[in-house]
Amino acid sequence: MTRILDLGNGFVQVDDYVVEKDVLHIIERIRDYDPNLDVLFLNPDRAGLFDAPWVVIEHCPDGMTRKVFEVWELNDSVIERLVMADTKRVDVLANLDKAVAQAKTENNRRFEERRLESQDKLAHLLANPRTTYTLPNNDGEILTIDDHFGVTKREGGE
Fold first, then answer.
1. How far, in Å, CA of 53 to CA of 39, rounded?
2. What are the tens digits of pLDDT across the range 35-67?
3. Both 67 and 20 in a single domain?
4. Is 119 exposed, middle or buried (0-12, 13-18, 19+ CB in 10 A)?
5. 99 has a pLDDT exceeding 60
6. Number of domains present in the structure of the chain
7. Is 74 found in the same domain as 14?
8. CA 66 → CA 57, 69, 111, 147, distances in Å?
9. Are residues 39 and 52 in contact, defined by beta-carbon separation less than 8 angstroms?
């Protein structure tokens, strides 16, 4: 049986160990999410320089304990990471397909905006009775279209 004592200063004592309330809350949320998951704190005297202090582990049905991932900080991002990687509860492939479709839609939208903007510039150019027309391009250069000199570019606008 685990004894938990609230020390009143943002820390709690769990048996012989003192931890932050936030850390204990995240550990409890991980255990509530999946009873097979647990969190270990590495002994700083035995851990290497580049070893993360927290390790999320899984107690597998075959009796083995396997590392899920390491974290440097126990916060809400650990829960999000567990949920996003959970292939039993979340269809990772469907989420990936949805993200790719959203990126493709956004890319097509931007392309269409640029196409319509270019179409509008061309319509103004053709409707203008002058022989010289000046407009900025997508690279920030100023294009000057002239009947006598053709197309010329200038850096930046005046």
1. 10
2. 999 888 887 777 777 888 889 999 999 999 999
3. yes
4. exposed
5. yes
6. 3
7. yes
8. 6, 9, 47, 74
9. no
Shared-domain flag, residues 54 and 29: yes
Domain ranges, residue 61: 4-90
Among 64, 90, 116, the domain-final residue is 90
Amino acid at 133: Y
Residue-wise pLDDT tens digits, 128-156 = 677 777 777 777 788 777 777 666 666 66
Same domain, 61 and 41: yes
Cα atoms in the Cβ-side hemisphere of radius 13 Å centred on 56: 26
pLDDT tens, 75-96?
Answer: 888 898 888 888 788 787 888 8
Strands (E), 47-118: 54-59, 65-71
Question: Position of tokens 């936030």?
Answer: 22
Both ends of the chain: CA-CA distance in Å? 77
Alpha carbon 134 to its chain centroid, in Å, reads: 41
pTM of the model: 0.53
What's the chain's average pLDDT?
82
